[in-house]
Amino acid sequence: MMNQDDRVEQFKTEISKMSVADPASGRDRVFAVLGAVLLLIGPLLTLVGFFTSHGTIDPLVQNDATITAIIGLTLTVAGGALFVRYSFAQFLRFWLARLSYESQAQTDRLIETLGGTTTAASPMSAAPTRAPAHAMADPISETPASET
């Protein structure tokens, strides 16, 4: 049975083969923080526009303040979208890694229970196999293609 360090190293090599973007690059975190900042700035800008438009009787200033408030709303919506998207990206990346690890652990337990060894190739590194075309069943008649 593999020890924990061997499993971690095997997991790291399999992830590197999958060419998944490194979350340590920080792009996801930067965009999540940018979204949170926009979520704070947007409502403030909207309130400034609201109070400016209600504090004057000049229609030109009111129109400018209304546009400022609409820009604030736009920043709020864009910030919320950025924050949700990149926060979910971080969470789902962790979830996928955990799922992969647990799947590998479950496979190892199953192989051990069935009496095999865990030195077999990982399911992630195994190449998919296909049956020969002449042995595939006809989906309509459920008979092999060579018999028709």
List the topology elements.
Layout: H1 4-17, H2 27-54, H3 59-114
Structure, explained:
By secondary structure, the protein is an all-alpha fold. The two termini are 48 Å apart. It has helices at 4-17, 27-54, 59-114. It has a domain at 26-117. The protein contains three helices and no strands.
The N- to C-terminal Cα distance equals 48 Å
The unreliable regions are none
- What is the helical fraction, as a range of percent? 55-70%
Sheet of most strands: none
Mean pLDDT score: 78
Helix segment tally: 3
The helix-and-strand class reads mainly alpha
Pattern of helices and strands: HHH
What proportion of the residues form beta strands (DSSP E)? under 5%
Label the overall shape. rod-shaped
Query: Radius of gyration, Cα only, in angstroms?
Result: 28 Å
Number of strands: 0
Give a brief description.
By secondary structure, this protein is mainly alpha-helical. 66% of the residues lie in helices and 0% in strands.
Structural features:
single chain; mainly alpha; 3 helices; 66% helix
